[in-house]
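Hi everyone, sorry if this is the wrong subforum. Our group has a chain we'd like a structural model of before ordering constructs, and none of us has done structure prediction before. Sequence below.
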Amino acid sequence: MVGFDLPVYSKRQQFMVTEPVAHLFKPFLITFSRQVSVQQTPHGSILMGGGDPKEPASFNVEAS
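Answer:
Right subforum, don't worry. Here is the predicted structure as tokens:
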């Protein structure tokens, strides 16, 4: 509609969630080179995970 293609693709990732814990950190931590991220929610749970940087983009939804 606007005259250009925007390349959009998906990358498979897996995350784990902890039980709520005392506050450890505020920022959302991410490393693009290893595709790993860590975040503590306001509730106290910690979300951590990522994907395999060597895996090609696809619509694969299988667990690895």
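For your construct planning: The mean pLDDT is 88. Residues 20-48 form one domain.
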